[in-house]
Amino acid sequence: MLQDLVIVLQWWLGIFVVGVAALPLSRKIFSSWHDQGYLFAKALGLALITYGVYLFGTLHILPFGHLSIFSFMILIFLIGLYKKPQNRINWKLWLVEELFFLLALVFWSWIKAHEPSIHSLEKFMDFGFTQSILNSSYFPAPDMWYAGKFYINYYYFGHTAMAVLTKLTNLDLIYTFNLMLCTIFAFTLTFTLSLAYQL
Q: What does each of the 199 residues of the chain score in pLDDT, given as a tens digit?
């Protein structure tokens, strides 16, 4: 049980770091919001980092790995620092939102732990595509169905985002596949509450 919690916390830490990297940029985009887009910084950061890693990997400029991930994290952070917003930071609100996100992640991880199999829907394919991405240095990644003879002919940006977080946290895909599903739950719950509060 304790080991499982450590894995979840390691995953959460990766998402937290990605959110921090995009927070200055998020504060500009959501400058009028009550929390300056603190929660949305996680999704914004993950999307921008994944796109940068994918683009440079497709152009064979930078191989997919820790170097490319950290390079784009730093780049996004520095871009966000240009002309910093003057809004005051509500640290207490950010702390409450972060704890709520963490609790949602841990809660759904506990639920998912009771049935972690990938035997339904497209989970087997999703797992295979993500593993192919993790095994690749450049994009597009090889299609697992064709033994490496063809590339994936499918929309796999979400799979790449999962691979980025997997690589960033140094966890095995056997854990992160289900943790990504739990993250989607935590994102949906916290983003909805943040948006509803803003409205």
A: 788 899 999 999 999 999 999 999 999 999 889 899 999 999 999 999 999 999 999 999 999 999 999 999 999 999 998 877 667 888 999 999 999 999 999 999 999 998 888 877 788 899 999 999 999 999 999 988 886 688 888 889 999 999 999 999 999 999 999 999 999 999 999 999 999 988 8
E strands within the chain? none
| CA dist., res. 55 & res. 53, Å (int) | 6
Question: How far is the C-alpha of 152 from the C-alpha of 43, rounded, in Å?
Answer: 24
Separation between Cα atoms, residue 1 and residue 196, nearest integer Å: 34
Tokens 């929660």 correspond to: 39
Contacts of 22 (CB under 8 A, 6+ apart): 41, 42, 44, 45, 48, 49, 76, 77, 80
State both tokens at 134. 């993790």
Structure-token match 């994102």, residue found: 187
Buried b (16+ CB within 10 A) or exposed e, 15-31: bbebbebbbbbbbbbbe
From 148, 189, 16, 171, select the one nearest 94 (Cα to Cα): 16
What are the tokens at 188?
Answer: 């949906």
8 Å CB contact between 157 and 50: yes
For residues 48 and 55, give the distance between their C-alpha atoms in angstroms, rounded to a whole number.
Answer: 10
